[in-house]
Design brief:
Layout lengths: L2 E6 L3 E8 L15 E9 L2 E7 L1 H20 L14 E6 L3 E6 L19 E5 L1 H16 L25 H24 L45 H4 L7 H18 L10 E8 L4 E6 L13 H4 L13 E8 L5 E5 L19
Antiparallel strand pairs: 1-2, 2-3, 3-4, 5-6, 6-7, 8-9, 8-10, 10-11
Helix pairs in contact: 1-2
Amino acid sequence: MTIERQYSLPNCKLILQGYNTGSDGKSDGRASLNVLMNAECHFVGYPQPITGGREFFESLVRQVSRYVQGFLSGLRAPESFRQQPELVELHSIAGELHQLTVHHPPQEKSSDEVSLAAAPPVQVNLTTVQLFDLVEAVDQFLADSQTLPELSIQLQPLSKRYLKPEQPIAQRAVPAAIGISSLALTALALFALPIPDIKRPEDPKLQPQTQSSTVPTPTAIPPQGSSPQTTVPQSLPPNLSSPPPITNPQELKDLKAQLIEKLTQAWIPTASVKTPLIYRVSVAKDGAIVGYKSLNPELGTETKQTPLPDLLYKPVGSRQTNEPLADFQVTFNPDGNLEVSNLASNTEANPQTSPKTPASN
């Protein structure tokens, strides 16, 4: 009974035909192919397949594996490295093509006389894609333990001495020769230069220290009969004593709306508030509450009943010094009503704040 194995790839198909000499099939019922009668190798674009017996197939497996090993590593073994001539040969040709050549052995007419010469070799030019499909088909065959299990590939490692240099030795030696010549010329030029004189530094001598005498500056004595001059303290400029106020009406309107929204969302009236709590609240241009001050100091301890301590801006770094501020009067009524009105800027009444510790209470 003839057994057939096919290993198909998009650009190559390998077909093996043979039979089994024993009953060593696997438990899956797949018979083992022990004796190879015919091997066919089909390539896309070539109508006629390449055929041969076991000798042809073994040579094909060896040569394909060796050629791809050298193609990928860049190491090509010379012809003398082969122990015997092969029926199958692979060579690289121009245009990134790979020529597959198959030689046929001479046919014998009788047992003691050879009359017919060997048939002309078959040559097929393979692209790189077809070559690697052939390699994949051979790998599938080698991984199939039910087909010719005694056939295995024996690859030998190649030494780096078979690596062909990219440039001839003469071209590679030119940079080294130029470098040595330049080094020699530089050494001659340095040899011609005079040796500089090196003087040892002398020990520093101690110099006598000159003592400077302090001459008191005479104090001017005012003439008799003249009245002594009195120093009048000058007030600091406005930009150093207090931050400038925000005077833009539209900006004040927007900041007031933001303040009302923040206080309304955060304030929860409590029954402990019996008297209206009135505060001066300072707001920066970005809407942050940077300070507050109680306008009824006798109720200063009730500040914790308001959301002002929680809404007070807690700087991570430092805010701008003397940044413009808008002052508002905020009244927290016991009935839960919240009143916010613009407050005229007053230097003495403004809460004193700093970038790190905003003033409260």
